[in-house]
């Protein structure tokens, strides 16, 4: 198999590379030091498998795996971790293979022999069960690459047919995630303003009439003005008042 090693510790990457070389039959085609680099490496190296550390600065391994699962032909993933026993129960429940640090050669060989691909839903459930925080980025698939949008830069999500439009400070992209799931994951940061819209509380700058008896929200540094339904109008006015 073609393998990419992802770990923020150079010594850990070096040890894994040595173990794989000693096993033979496999080739390390790339390395990455964090989740963002992992996404770039997948696009450039087209690996069959990623050995993916979980605890990394920025985009951690669970979040990176969730984004990678959106690709048309994602690599298989084996997590490497120093998680405690309680968190490892979540991995076992999701039938996800993982290697507990320090990694033993025989355990690595066993894991490589039963490599399997993971679904985005499976990784998302694992992320929740392991008590991991909500994602810091949302991934939009553009052709054969992923564009990552910082959650802090997002103004709103708007459901339209089978897709969700994501409006952010840099423009607009489409994502394939249910609005209900986004609302559940980001309930602390986003508020429902319409049956098909979620808006970032941090980016609400005001509200104005739409000229047709309704209202639209003004968002900081985001051009799109999402409509506010009558059902949610009182809640939004209360929120605006609390914001001063």
Task: Characterize the structure shown.
With 244 residues, this protein is α/β, with parallel strands linked by helices. It folds into two domains: 2-129, Response regulator (Rossmann fold, 3-Layer(aba) Sandwich); 149-243, OB fold (Dihydrolipoamide Acetyltransferase, E2P) (Beta Barrel), CATH 2.40.50. It contains eight helices and 15 strands. The protein has helices at 10-23, 35-45, 61-68, 85-93, 105-113, 120-129, 179-185, 230-243, and strands spanning 2-6, 27-32, 49-53, 76-81, 98-100, 137-142, 145-150, 154-160, 163-168, 171-175, 190-194, 197-200, 204-209, 215-219, 227-228. It has a five-stranded parallel beta sheet with strand order 2-1-3-4-5, with helices on both faces. β11 (190-194) and β12 (197-200) form a beta hairpin. α2 (35-45) packs parallel to α3 and α3 runs antiparallel to α6. InterPro entries: CheY-like_superfamily (IPR011006), LytTR_DNA-bd_dom (IPR007492), Sig_transdc_resp-reg_receiver (IPR001789), WalR-like (IPR039420). Residues 138-242 form the HTH LytTR-type domain. Residues 2-116 form the Response regulatory domain. Keywords: DNA-binding, Phosphoprotein, Two-component regulatory system. It comes from Solemya pervernicosa gill symbiont.
């Amino acid at each position: 198999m073609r393998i990419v090693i992802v770990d923020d510790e150079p010594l850990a990457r070096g040890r894994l590379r040595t173990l794989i070389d000693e096993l033979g039959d496999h080739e390390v085609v790339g390395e990455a030091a964090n989740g963002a680099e992992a996404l770039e490496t997948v696009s450039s190296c087209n690996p069959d498998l990623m050995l993916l550390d979980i605890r990394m600065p920025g985009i951690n391994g669970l979040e990176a795996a969730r984004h990678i699962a959106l690709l048309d032909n994602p690599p298989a993933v084996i997590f490497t971790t120093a998680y405690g026993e309680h968190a490892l129960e979540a991995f076992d429940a999701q039938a996800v293979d993982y290697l507990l640090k320090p990694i033993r050669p025989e355990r690595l060989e066993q894991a490589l022999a039963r490599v399997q691909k993971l679904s985005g839903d499976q990784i998302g459930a694992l992320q929740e069960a392991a008590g991991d925080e909500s994602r810091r980025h949302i991934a939009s698939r553009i052709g054969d690459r992923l564009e990552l949008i910082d959650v802090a830069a997002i103004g709103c999500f708007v459901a339209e047919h089978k897709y969700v439009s994501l409006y952010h400070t840099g423009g607009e992209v489409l994502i394939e995630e249910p609005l209900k799931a986004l609302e559940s994951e980001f309930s602390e940061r986003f508020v429902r303003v319409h049956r098909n819209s979620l808006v970032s509380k941090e980016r609400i700058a005001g509200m104005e009439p739409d000229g047709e008896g309704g209202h639209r929200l003004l968002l900081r540094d985001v051009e799109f003005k999402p409509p506010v339904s009558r059902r949610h109008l009182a809640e939004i006015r209360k929120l605006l008042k609390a914001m001063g």
